[in-house]
């Protein structure tokens, strides 16, 4: 007994005629008759009785018709679920966002678009530093993450660029610079208290900053450390020194923090959506597609 035979049987039962049923399912009448006979042989019982007006169901046929309807409905639902899964329209995603909250509105727009296009996928969001994200993606605990500093030569990871932020000097707003004497380049910060990020918090970013500072001839005078961009912003707001933060931090900075560009501060924070190359499911592929189509809007807002 297979689904095709059940469909043929249901058609005969619906129309009460093998000839009419054959037309409705688009096969020849003798072929349909053979399929019904094969089904009866398989079940070991008669399903139909021939009459002068066509056919009618036996008791076995009445029972099979009830069960066949359920089986065919279940098969149709299973087919639809499989097709939706294949299109990445069902399942669950575990995604990580950066700790810096100024990026959340941009990513929220992407998630809004994704939910509109793919309403059947559940999403769990985490706020994690880039290095933590990479570790959890590698372990399979995260499907993907929006992060910085993906190892460029690591074949285990794949990613697409999402948006980029230039870096600015962030300093207490009540710092007064003599007219025309404000800092223009990194070296002008030499005698100022500088809030620094320990290398353990973000090794790759720390090293990029160090190289930028070295090229500019600047050695920061550090007395206070933050653990991430948000904590460094808080320390600047408290008047404890200046630091380097992405331009997007302006959106969440209090009035006690001011920002300015420096001529030789040319590095940028380049954000990517990153995933493990060998764990790209259909649902993740669909998410990547939505993120990719949203990149121009994200760049305009950065």
State the secondary-structure class. alpha/beta
**Low-confidence runs (pLDDT<50, min 5 residues)?**
none
Question: Radius of gyration in whole Å, from Cα?
Answer: 33 Å
CATH H-level superfamily of the largest domain:
Periplasmic binding protein-like II
Secondary structure tally, helices? 10
Apparent shape = rod-shaped
Which CATH class of the largest domain? Alpha Beta
- The CATH topology of the largest domain corresponds to D-Maltodextrin-Binding Protein, domain 2
Whole-number average pLDDT?
A: 85
> In total, how many domains does the architecture comprise?
3
- How far is it from the N-terminal to the C-terminal residue, by CA? 61 Å
The count of DSSP E runs of length 2 or more, i.e. the number of strands, is 11
Strand content: 15-25%
Major sheet: size, sense and barrel closure?
7 strands, mixed
Output the helix-strand order: HHHEEHEHEHEEEHEHEEEHH
Q: What is the annotated CATH architecture of the largest domain?
A: 3-Layer(aba) Sandwich
In which range does the helix fraction lie?
40-55%
GO molecular function: DNA binding; DNA-binding transcription factor activity
Family: Belongs to the LysR transcriptional regulatory family.
InterPro entries: LysR_HTH_N, LysR_subst-bd, WH-like_DNA-bd_sf, WH_DNA-bd_sf
Protein name: Putative LysR family transcriptional regulator
